[in-house]
Design brief:
Strand order of the largest sheet: 6-5-7-8-9
Strand content: over 45%
Largest sheet: 5 strands, mixed
Number of strands: 9
Number of helices: 2
C-alpha cells in the first residue's frame, strides 16, 4: 500500500518554530491497513505538547487520515483497591477512542529538543547630499541627509528527536514503533515566520 510521507522538522518552542515540508511517495514502512482515523496524544518530554501538535498538523496536511482531536477523548481510569494512582496512561484512552471510532493512537516521547539561536546584528549609515533649486522664486538650498538602519538575522541550529508508537485501538496492541530525528540549520530574517 502506498501512502504519502511528509518529511518534517518539528521545532515548536515559542520563538523556535520552523517547519520544512517536502512531500514524496514511497511504500509504507508501517502496516496501516484498516487505520483511517487517528488521534495523536501529547508526547512526554520537553515540548511534548508542541511536538504532538506539529505532528497532528502534518498528518492533517497529508489528508490521508481523518484526525480526532485528543480533547474529544476522555481518559477512562479504573480505580484499584488502593485508589487511582499515577498519571494518565495511553491505555486509559482506549475505551474512549473506541467510542469515537478512532482506529489508531499515536503516542510518543521527545528524546531531544534543542534550539540554539545566535542573533547577528548589523548597522549601516547612509549619507546623501543634494541641492534643490526653485527657479520661479530664485531660491536654492543645499543639504545633507543622514540615516541609520539596523537589521537583525537569527542563525538557528535545532534538533528534535522523537520515539513514537502506533497503537491499534481495537486490540490495544502496538502495531509499529519508530524513532526519528530532524535537524534544521539556517539564517532567518526579521520577517521570517517563527
Amino acid at each position: 500500500r502506498w501512502v504519502p510521507v511528509c518529511v518534517w522538522a518539528v521545532l515548536l518552542l515559542p520563538g523556535c518554530a520552523i517547519t520544512a515540508p517536502a512531500t514524496a511517495w514511497r511504500p509504507a514502512q508501517i502496516d496501516v491497513s484498516g487505520i483511517e482515523q487517528l488521534c495523536v496524544l501529547e508526547f512526554s518530554g520537553e515540548q511534548g505538547r508542541s511536538v504532538a501538535a506539529a505532528l497532528t498538523a502534518r498528518l492533517w496536511e497529508n489528508e490521508f487520515y481523518t484526525l480526532v482531536d485528543v480533547a474529544d477523548l476522555s481518559p477512562i481510569r479504573v480505580a484499584s483497591a488502593s485508589g487511582i494512582t499515577g498519571a494518565v496512561q495511553p491505555a486509559d484512552y482506549l475505551d474512549s477512542a473506541r467510542g469515537q471510532g478512532v482506529d489508531g493512537l499515536i503516542i510518543g516521547d521527545v528524546i531531544e529538543y534543542r534550539c540554539d539561536d545566535q542573533v547577528l546584528s548589523s548597522t549601516s549609515m547612509h549619507v546623501s547630499s543634494g541641492r534643490t533649486e526653485d527657479a520661479d522664486h530664485g531660491l536654492s538650498s543645499t543639504g545633507t541627509d543622514m540615516g541609520v538602519s539596523h537589521t537583525q538575522t537569527i542563525h538557528r541550529e535545532a534538533t528534535v528527536s522523537i520515539a513514537f508508537r502506533l497503537v491499534e485501538v481495537e486490540t490495544g496492541k502496538v502495531r509499529a514503533t519508530r524513532k526519528t530525528t530532524q535537524t534544521f540549520q539556517g539564517d532567518l530574517g526579521p520577517d521570517s515566520a517563527r
